[in-house]
């Protein structure tokens, strides 16, 4: 027998070893493969639901099916053109106030040459306060009037909720900008009249000191800049990269198409066939519908977030050569609901911190109470943004925002639990409460209320107990 | 006017910053929150499908619905008791061979005292070869006979596929153990008769040298040890932790219940209502069914893997004080299909490497060809394990295994692509080919063939074109 190179006696088992999944195994394995598996299972199961949807409904996407009336378009265009006038009015008010300040400064200088007595200073303060009262009244009156009239038109005269949402969003954004313009210029004027060396103005404002910033071009820059916070000057980039702008525009286009397809093909039939379950208050079915809707609404929400905060605002910032592009922080990793609300929408967060939270805390309000005030204002604006275009002030968006307060308390407590588990749990609570339950449930309720208002529910389900709940 | 602590002039935008999702942003954010979201979406969407399933079918789980006949149980028990006899027969053969070897050694020693000539050595080699031919024939004949008779009984006399699978699996495991026992003892005998200082036996065998290892108690240890590779001695633990064993037993129990519920409540109706689509060769529906089945089959597969390779084998190893518990490596992260097949089932991999691959390569076969031989043997065993209990040797399991060879070539090429992407793609190809397509498709085909064979398809769908394809 020829000598073989190999013998069947090799010791396969020569040492003690643990299975890697046994708790306390020396090397805990990576589970990155399961992340890939989850992605694939999500893709596969949703592709399957798309096949199912196609077999049931065919293609529902249709360009000519959007029934917006001519009246909607006319009112929408009128609002689009008239809402910015609020800023011009604010500019005119500030122009007058600046003139007043300049002449007051001249008077003070003259008086100062004579005698800078406490009596003179008190008189100057009184004069500033008197003028601010008039200025504040003018700003407040026309801002309130503008927001009210816009909301009134959206609520009563624009039927299509899409056009209504755009108009209402525009009105709220301009309203916030006008408020910031008024507050900031008030304190700049105050700083001019009562300079305080211990509290110098930010360095960046030196390039455009008050009252030089009260100019039409400065206002127009603020009008289009991707921020809600007025500053006389902003960090700027050197030049506009048009290729970058084109890429962002392409992203907005593609994402809008994706959202449109998702809503028309997947959300619309789901909402439609949930009307019956809502009408009969069949809770298990409503839960099932919310769960099914959650995937579509989550998809639309993520696409919408990216389209608005990443693509649109970055594109606009590039055109405006606006250099501070922190429009959001990585909110998807938040471990408490509080962090979510301070990171996902930096323009509004910055506004609220600068013009609501900090002034209140600076005036001695406890921080927790100031936060509640911020959430209250935010809740009112949310209700306005959802309720006015859908013609139903249900209070669901308002309550949804106010419900964030106990949730914040709860997830803050959870975060203090030691170790990574509390953070993961907090993150999951955020996703469940916000994306998997809150949004689809809200969408169902406003959709149902819409159909209850316009009669399609009462026609289809005349005995519906839910109609009494929405007061029809 | 009292001096306020706060002024609305704080510079929110004081520096240039990038949005964190912009490509090339200074700090790429973590996306760990999206991992949590994926887990939640998977849980939510599957909970929804469970509600849908419950509404459609009610509760399908039923203890008394399993229709195994008395004949199945009797044959199953008979096989369970008779299959291990193969090991006792192998032991008797080795006992005789060991006696022969001992007397040959005595003769050689006597001859060695006279003259250790090349002629004497050649004569001894001839004698060893002659005896090995007889031993190999005996082992081969009874091993083949045993596997054939077990498969025959499972195929023709055990109707219930569950009982059939257990019997066939048992038969294959014992067959592999008997092969390893014969091969290893052959080479140990050879090493005794022709000691070669350049190739010493593994140190761990010193505690039980040949022929002392040919004992009934040593065989019984190998019979129950969680390995397919025979060694005279194994690494051992000091004591049995019964609490550990109880935990593993509990895991097996819970996971078995989970698999049972998943099959009865979710897989069974899915398979049942896919018969019609299969019968009419409606490919889009078949794809849709495969996609839906993939989640259930993946769940069952992962539970089954854990129950068998982690819980059962670790529990058995603890009872046997078997210390080498590397029954698998983290196969879920593999980036090529080759790695998967060498890591998910270490007992079989160890057997194939020691008794098939290495001997073939040692005898001069190119490694690639030796791998193909290993896959061929594995494919035959897979077909036996699936085809015999389902009474249909379709060749699908065989072809599925053989198809791994081109897939290995492809993912090996992909792995060489630079960067992490090739690894992620390889991992995804593994999951898709194996868990999301291969397994559910195989399950559908064997299920259809079963119903075609036992007439339920031809009764329900007499015009089915697919019946011709499976030859009924």
UniProtKB/TrEMBL annotation, chains A, B:
One of its GO terms (cellular component) is endoplasmic reticulum membrane. Signal peptide: none annotated. The chain crosses the membrane at residues 32-51, 73-98, 249-270, 290-309, 360-381, 393-414, 426-449. It comes from the Eukaryota. Keywords: Acyltransferase, Endoplasmic reticulum, Membrane, Transferase, Transmembrane, Transmembrane helix. GO terms for biological process: triglyceride biosynthetic process. The active site is at 382. The keyword Nucleotide-binding does not apply. Its main location: endoplasmic reticulum. It is found in: Endoplasmic reticulum membrane. GO terms for molecular function: diacylglycerol O-acyltransferase activity. It is a multi-pass membrane protein. Pfam families: MBOAT (PF03062). Pathway: Lipid metabolism. Belongs to the membrane-bound acyltransferase family. Sterol o-acyltransferase subfamily. Sterol O-acyltransferase that catalyzes the formation of stery esters. This is O-acyltransferase. It comes from Paraphaeosphaeria sporulosa. The lineage of its organism: Eukaryota, Fungi, Dikarya, Ascomycota, Pezizomycotina.
């Amino acid at each position: 027998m020829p000598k073989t190179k190999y013998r069947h006696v090799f010791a396969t088992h020569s040492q003690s070893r643990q299975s890697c999944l046994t708790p306390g195994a020396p090397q805990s394995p990576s589970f990155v493969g399961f992340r890939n598996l989850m992605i694939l299972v999500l893709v596969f199961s949703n592709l399957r639901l798309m096949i199912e949807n196609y077999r049931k409904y065919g293609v529902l996407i249709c360009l000519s099916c959007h029934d917006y009336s001519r009246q909607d378009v006319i009112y929408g265009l009128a609002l689009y053109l008239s809402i910015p006038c609020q800023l011009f009015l604010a500019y005119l008010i500030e122009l007058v106030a600046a003139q007043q300040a300049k002449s007051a400064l001249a008077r003070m200088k003259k008086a100062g040459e004579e005698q800078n007595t406490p009596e003179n200073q008190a008189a100057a303060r009184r004069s500033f306060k008197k003028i601010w009262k008039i200025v504040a009244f003018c700003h407040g009156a026309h801002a309130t009037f503008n927001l009210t009239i816009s909301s009134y038109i959206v609520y009563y005269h624009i039927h299509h909720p899409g056009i209504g949402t755009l108009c209402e969003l525009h009105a709220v954004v301009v309203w916030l900008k006008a408020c910031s313009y008024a507050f900031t210029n008030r304190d700049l004027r105050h700083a001019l009249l009562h300079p305080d060396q211990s509290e110098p103005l930010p360095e960046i404002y030196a390039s455009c000191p008050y009252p030089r910033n009260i100019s039409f071009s400065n206002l127009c820059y603020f009008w289009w800049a991707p921020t809600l916070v007025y500053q006389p000057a902003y960090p700027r980039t050197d030049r506009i990269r048009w290729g970058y702008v084109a890429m962002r525009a392409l992203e907005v286009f593609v994402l809008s198409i994706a959202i449109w397809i998702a809503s028309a093909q997947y959300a619309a039939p789901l909402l439609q066939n949930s009307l019956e379950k809502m009408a009969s208050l069949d809770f298990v079915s409503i839960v099932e519908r919310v769960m099914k809707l959650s995937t579509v609404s989550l998809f639309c929400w993520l696409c919408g977030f990216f389209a608005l905060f990443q693509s649109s605002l970055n594109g606009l910032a590039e055109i405006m050569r606006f250099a501070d592009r922190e429009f959001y922080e990585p909110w998807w990793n938040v471990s408490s609901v509080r962090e979510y609300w301070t990171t996902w929408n930096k323009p509004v967060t910055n506004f609220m911190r600068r013009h609501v939270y900090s002034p209140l805390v600076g005036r001695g309000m406890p921080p927790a109470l100031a936060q509640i005030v911020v959430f209250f204002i935010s809740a009112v604006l949310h209700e306005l943004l959802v309720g006015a275009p859908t013609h139903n002030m249900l209070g669901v968006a308002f309550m949804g925002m106010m419900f964030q307060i106990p949730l914040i308390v709860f997830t803050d407590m959870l975060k203090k639990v030691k170790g990574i588990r509390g953070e993961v749990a907090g993150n999951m609570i955020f996703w469940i409460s916000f994306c998997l339950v809150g949004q689809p449930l809200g969408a169902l309720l406003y959709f149902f209320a819409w159909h209850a208002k316009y009669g399609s529910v009462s026609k289809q389900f005349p005995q519906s107990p839910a109609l009494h709940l929405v007061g029809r």
